[in-house]
Design brief:
Largest sheet: 5 strands, mixed
Shape: globular
Number of helices: 5
Helix content: 40-55%
Order of helices and strands: EEEHEHEHHH
Number of strands: 5
Number of domains: 1
Strand order of the largest sheet: 3-2-1-4-5
CATH topology: Nucleotidyltransferase, domain 5
CATH architecture: 2-Layer Sandwich
Distance between the termini: 15 Å
Strand content: 15-25%
CATH class: Alpha Beta
Structural class: alpha/beta
Length: 146
């Protein structure tokens, strides 16, 4: 079983973990649209479940940055549908609470939690949330399967 987590922000990523929570791979969303689609297509047939972070425009966020964020979110949704990957939405509060890393906007907290879970990987801010969302997906799937 393989689980996908998606942090849809422009500086976000897609990440994969296996059924034991082991790291498989990641891809930052700053790659070209074709590269992201090709990466996902290569893994699509093995993905059991996915979660994409459901977020919204923030107060005082500029119009152009809100548009770019919405564009990235829509692109990720389109890829999930196109590659027939079963997915759910998950709010930041839900996955952060479940993984014990409520950030309150401080990305260092989620980065530190991801580093705890995957000490052999160089965790960056860009991939931390996607990995944690993938882990949340795995835990939810395992809890439902019992």
């Amino acid at each position: 079983m393989i689980f996908l987590g998606i942090d849809p922000g422009k500086s976000g990523a897609l990440a994969l973990v296996n059924g034991d929570g082991g790291f498989i791979d990641f891809l930052k969303l700053n790659e070209t649209a074709h590269d992201v689609s090709d990466w996902l297509r290569a893994h699509a047939g093995t993905i059991t479940a996915a979660q994409i972070e459901r977020v919204h425009a923030m107060p005082r966020q500029g119009v152009s940055s809100s548009f770019r964020f919405g564009e990235s979110f829509g692109f990720c949704l389109g890829l999930l549908v196109c590659h027939r990957i079963p997915f759910e939405y998950v709010t930041p509060a839900k996955w952060q609470r479940a993984l014990g890393c409520r950030t309150g906007g401080d990305k260092r907290i989620s980065k530190a939690r991801a580093q705890e879970l995957w000490p052999s990987i160089k965790i960056t801010h860009a991939i931390a949330d996607a990995l944690l969302i993938a882990e949340h997906t795995r835990r939810i799937h395992n809890a439902r399967s019992r």
